[in-house]
Amino acid sequence: MSGKLLIAGGRVVDPSQGIDTVADVLIEDGHVARLGVALRAKGAERLDAKGLVVCPGFIDLHAHLREPGREDKETIATGTRAAVAGGFTAVCAMPNTEPVNDSAGITRAILDKAASEGACRVYPIGAITKGSQGEELAEYGDLREAGCVAVSDDGRPVASARVMRRALEYALAFDLTVIDHCEEPSLSQGAAMNEGPVATWLGLRGAPAAGEAMVVERDVLLAELTGGRVHIAHLSAAASADAVRRGKARGVRVTAEATPHHLFLDDGLVRDRAYDASTKMNPPLRGEADRSAVVAALRDGTIDCIATDHAPHTVDDKKVEYDQAAFGIVGLETAVGLCLDRLVRPGLVELSALVSLLSTRPARILDLPGGSLAPGAPGDVTVLDLERRWVVDPERFASKGRNTPFDALRLTGRAVATVVAGRVAFRA
Amino acid sequence: MSLFPHRNLLGIEPLAPADVEHILDTADSMKEILDRPIKKVPTLRGKTVINLFYEASTRTRSSFEVAERVLSADSLSIATATSSVQKGETLLDTAWNLEAMKPDMIIIRHQCSGAPHFLARHCRPAIVNAGDGAHEHPTQALLDALTLRQRKGRLRGLRVAIIGDLLHSRVARSNLWLLTKLGADVVLCGPPTLVPPGIEAMAPVTHRIEQACEGADAIMMLRVQRERMTGGYFPSAREYFQRFGLTEPRVRRAKKDVIILHPGPMNRGVEIATEVADGPYSVILDQVTNGVAIRMAVLYLLLGGASEVES
Fold this sequence. Notes:
The complex is a heterodimer. Chain A is of the alpha/beta class.
């Protein structure tokens, strides 16, 4: 990581330092060296950022890179290329690979692959329980030492309150946050979408929002009981936000993320798209009242960050009957554009607040390096063009996944350059 | 006769009231063919229809087959128990293979809601929904409406009670769309565990069958599937019959000339008492005959009508 990169003349927005001003950023040896006006750096590569926004690199706390095991859906190479194409300089990799990342050996294999083939930083997340079976705790000490930054049984929610309690307690020894996919399985068995009027008319089995919220309530209470740190993955319901809000008011160590699709889409889309499986994910798109409550929770600080839940699938896994289609959509290459177009442009969220939601806060939630352009911070930078008009074209995704409900959408604003450790990893 | 403005019949929901009346009028005029000594007209000669049935069906499938024969369409029926589906072929592959045989129409019954929409999106032939999951069963609702219209002379203002497992019933959904579009006054009834959320926006819901039957011109009974009886939706078939079954005393709360419909197959002693099922107000066998007429009308309007549009 030798060499110098000068990102010149951009509007630097760094909420970690309260900065929003035109300045140059000099990166040396992979780290931020200086921030200042008209910096001179002999022999530095120059990235002209005039008219652009320069932010600390975006960090996605929730992505499925599928490797090892499902390289037909995504690999660490393609997933991280999708990440940098979407403006992310780091992604946290969920452990529901095949095999599940529940041991140091798998964690190290993921990190080795990321080091040799990855386009951005990869932070593995270990499993809460062995095999994500929801029974015995995985070896958190080993996982932490090997490089895991959190534990989660995402996609396979921990049903037992006793197991979740032990996980929160045991994780304290290694300073790990437990990330929970909150879902009461007995209420969502066989569900293909959100329970409500749309599911009724489509004749699809629905999962009620209450099934998420009751597990969020449980986790908040267990975090309070144990003093552990819990992070609520892909929060999608008003009642879930309410539980987090009340927990935070009591000083419980709870944080939460929301995905762009839960912020911008509701379950009416399943009907509008006539059962197209690009609208199928878990948690499902909720009703409009839940959707707007998630936006409100993002604005009032109840939700701490935006994460993608990037879930690539093959065409074969999606081009089937709705009930039989795989859950999940890709998100790395659309998230930033959607947030700029639908949160910042209409004035719902200030630009600096969005940078915080995508960079500073995710870094803080898991104590990751980055989230800042202060001298000494990693040389990870996302450069935005707020005026760039573009059309979402899944055929041009770097990800292997094409499964998105945002295809053909016209957006204004996107990441146009992504710098990882001082190296330009993407330019548009 | 004016042209029918739809390529497929995926459900009642997307139809305009005039479309529904158009199908009913066509069926009325076609019913007469079934009373002729030679029950065959050349209307759809040279058209090929595939009946693709992923779920067991006696009534609906044979009704479509009879309609196809009367109209002289060439047809073949594929039941999935004997097809490549057993070898793991996907719905899309099956459909594409069938499409390559150049049929004009595929009639599909499938356990997954939205399967007909999926086919319509990916293949060329006209698609008719013969029942998809818990979504819709449009030809059933049409034949029910035809039966009601024949017996009552109208649909507007009729008080119709739909009673039973509303949660899992595609018949209930299609009938609810159709009857409300044509101005009938619908009341829904079932145990709360079998009433899906949001349905009350379309018609009032009661959990008391006596109330639902009160003053009814017609009662539509829905089948209670056996697996629901052990699925925790209600404690026992015995209690279901006691509290939600259609019995003689309950029928007496309806209008004197009430008619009783059931899409079949019936569970006697569960949702309906035998004396009611076999009673004078039961029109269950009329429904079967009307089913053929409705399917003739649908075939004719989608196949006959479409070629006229294109030429």
